[in-house]
Design brief:
The complex is a heterodimer of chains A (110) and B (223). Chain A is an all-alpha fold and 110 residues long. Chain A is 52% helix and 0% strand. Chain A is extended. Chain B starts with 9 loop residues before the first helix and ends in a 19-residue tail after the last helix. The longest helix of chain B has 33 residues. The chains are: A mainly alpha (110), B mainly alpha (223). Chains A and B meet through helix 1, helix 2, helix 3 and helix 4 of A and helix 2, strand 1, strand 2, helix 4 and helix 7 of B.
Chain lengths: 110, 223
């Protein structure tokens, strides 16, 4: 179980940290259509457009896309893992913290 | 497929914030029943995987790319309620930390990708469940079709929102044809990624595939 979860996490980190450099930089389907039909003219800048991680870069430098991606994967895992851990059914409420499954989650949240 | 702020007028943006809050609220209540010590860490990892995969835009036409939305993928692996929450978390992280997808547009984006996409992807997978449980090819086919439906109908969510309160006054038919056309192509990519991912998980850990719950492990899905 642990090995599978570790492998799944490593795959996500590799995709976001390395394969992301090979992503197609062209606008996606929705952006393309809204640009073609003048809808995108109405778009407002994102309030965080000047924030260092904006557009999966680090301080506007997209040589660090992989680093931004890894941060995103870790952050998503922390938020989702934390929420799902809180929501989960505990067969034995008081001692849930001692089960193997809970230990896994703690490790994931590192 | 992330809308920026400003494409929809304020009342429409607010309407879909309300829709998203209601939908995510239901998902939060229902997800509890699908999460235990085994599936909770899996669900966290599925969310992380969807975040990673959404970064990987693939070409669909000259000058046009597409990326995974992930609703069908998440629903097949961790169920519709938890799956909707996975995609919602990804969209919130993208908008609030990476300026990808607007903030007032978050309601519409969650509605399209996390709620509509996940729901129709899951319903398609359930309708075809008999085929999915037959063998690895059947599971791959069901994952592909569910993901294709997920992408196309999620994009139709944008078409409807634009018709309700979009800026720029482009005719419904024009927007619908353009958006749906390109998202059929993106849906093929979504289908291939979803089929590859779901069959890989099923080969290693069929017990962690929500759609296959209750299927006797006579299935020779292990590699």
């Amino acid at each position: 179980m642990k090995r599978f979860f570790l492998g799944f996490a490593v795959v996500s980190l590799l995709l976001a940290g390395a394969v992301s450099y090979f992503a197609d930089p062209n606008p996606d389907g929705l952006d393309h259509v809204t640009e073609q039909h003048g809808i995108a003219e109405h778009a407002r800048d994102h309030p965080l457009a000047g924030w260092p991680l904006a557009d999966y870069a680090v301080a506007g430098d997209d040589r660090f896309t992989g680093l931004a991606g890894i941060l995103g994967v870790v952050l998503t895992l922390a938020v989702a893992g934390g929420l799902f851990r809180l929501l989960r059914k505990r067969p034995d409420g008081r001692t849930a913290g001692n089960t193997a499954g809970s230990t896994d989650v703690k490790t994931d949240l590192g | 497929m992330h809308m920026s702020d400003g494409l929809l007028n304020a009342p429409t943006s607010l309407l879909f914030v309300a829709v998203a809050v209601a939908g995510v609220g239901v998902a939060l209540a229902k997800a509890r029943g699908d999460l235990d010590d085994r599936t909770a860490p899996m669900a966290g990892l599925v969310a992380a995987f969807v975040f990673a995969a959404q970064m990987l835009n693939f070409p669909v036409l000259p000058g046009v790319s597409g990326h995974l939305l992930g609703g069908a993928l998440a629903a097949i692996l961790v169920g519709p309620w938890v799956g909707a929450l996975c995609v919602t978390i990804v969209l919130v992280v993208q908008s609030l930390f990476f300026a990808d997808g607007g903030v007032t547009a978050l309601g519409a984006n969650v509605t399209n990708m996390a709620l509509v996409g996940t729901a129709v992807g899951y319903l398609t997978a359930v309708a075809l469940r008999r085929l999915a449980t037959r063998n690895k090819g059947g599971l791959a086919a069901v994952a592909f079709v569910s993901a294709l439906v997920n992408t196309v109908l999620a994009s139709f969510g944008f078409v409807l929102e634009y018709a309700i309160g979009g800026q720029g006054g482009v005719a419904f038919g024009t927007v619908a044809a353009a958006v749906l056309g390109v998202h059929v192509l993106i849906g093929i990519g979504e289908g291939l990624i979803t089929a590859a991912t779901v069959t890989a998980v099923a080969a290693a850990r069929p017990d962690l595939v929500y759609l296959l719950r209750g299927v006797p492990q006579k299935l020779e899905l292990r590699a």
